[in-house]
Structure formats: C-alpha cells, structure tokens
C-alpha cells in the first residue's frame, strides 16, 4: 500500500463531508494495508491496543461509512462475518480452504456471463461474483512439514 492511496482515501472522505477521527483514520489505514480482506473483528483486534475505548460497533460504523461512499466493498459469505475489501476495482477472489485467506487476482471480467444470463432468464443482471477455492502457499508449506 502506498501513502498515496491513503491520502486519496482521506481526500474522498473529506469531500464527502466525513469527519476524520484518529480511529477512523486508523481503520482506513489498516484496511489499505491488509491484503487478507479482514473482518470487522480482525480490524478491532488489530487496533484495540492503540484505541482502548474503541468497540467492534465503532469499527462497524466506520466500515459502513466507508462502504456508503464507495471506499470499500463488503463481501458476504452466508452466515459467517463479512470481509472488507478496499480494492474496489473489478477483480476476482481466490479463497484458501485451510486458513480462510482471500487473495485478489485479475482476470478479464466475464461480462458474457451476464448478458447470457440475461438472455436466458430475462433478469436484469446487476453484477456477478466468482470465487476460486484452494490451498494457499503458506498452508501448502505447513502441510508438508506435518507429513
Ligand atoms: Zn491458507
Ligand atoms: Zn479483493
């Protein structure tokens, strides 16, 4: 993550009329640095030492503000807690089945799927989601050590 991205995000908040509190700034900075697509709980745990008065609810509130102005995307997975992604450009995710880590990868957007689905079903398609699953490099290494 570059200073530049943080600066840009802060500018976007300011221009949307959002007040930048130290906590809000810290949540934003953590999100931009985290490559794992953290949950609100991950963020809370990482920052509670620095902000003893902060609650998980505060983290959620901040994330909601960020989401509303388009700084983060919320990724929902059934009933497990949402993950937050500050990469709002089009990309796909690969998910480790062993540790749950989510990694970005780029692949040409599968727009054909959307128009095809529209034609077949008559739906108005808004977006699509594709996830690839497997075992990440670290987990592969760990497995070998156990054997
Ligand atoms: Zn893993
Ligand atoms: Zn992502």
TrEMBL record:
Name the major location: cytoplasm
A GO BP entry: regulation of secondary metabolite biosynthetic process
In this chain, Fe cation is annotated as bound at 128
Cellular location of this protein? Cytoplasm
Gene3D superfamilies named among the record's database cross-references: 3.30.1490.190, Winged helix-like DNA-binding domain superfamily/Winged helix DNA-binding domain
Q: Which residues are involved in binding Zn(2+)? A: 96, 99, 136, 139
Keywords of the record: Cytoplasm, DNA-binding, Iron, Manganese, Metal-binding, Repressor, Transcription, Transcription regulation, Zinc
One GO MF term attached to the UniProt entry: zinc ion binding
Q: Which cofactor does it need?
A: Zn(2+); Mn(2+); Fe(2+)
Cofactor: binding details: Binds 1 zinc ion per subunit. Binds 1 Mn(2+) or Fe(2+) ion per subunit.
Pfam families, alphabetized: FUR (PF01475)
Provide a GO CC annotation, any one: cytoplasm
Hey, which family's this protein in? Belongs to the Fur family.
Q: Any idea what this protein is called?
A: Transcriptional repressor
Where does this protein come from, organism-wise? Gracilibacillus dipsosauri
């Amino acid at each position: 993550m570059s200073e530049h991205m943080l600066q840009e995000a802060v500018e976007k908040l300011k221009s949307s009329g959002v007040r930048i509190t130290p906590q809000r700034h810290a949540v934003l900075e953590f999100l931009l640095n985290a490559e794992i697509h953290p949950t609100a709980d991950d963020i809370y745990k990482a920052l509670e030492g620095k902000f003893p008065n902060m609650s998980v609810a505060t983290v959620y509130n901040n994330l909601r503000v960020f989401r509303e102005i388009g700084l983060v995307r919320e990724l929902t997975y059934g009933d497990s807690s949402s993950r937050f992604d500050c990469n709002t450009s089009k990309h796909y995710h690969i998910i480790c089945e062993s540790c749950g880590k989510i990694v970005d990868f780029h692949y040409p957007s599968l727009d054909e799927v959307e128009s095809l689905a529209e034609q077949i079903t008559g739906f108005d398609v808004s977006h699509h989601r594709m996830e690839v699953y497997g075992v990440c490099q670290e987990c592969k290494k760990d497995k070998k050590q156990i054997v």
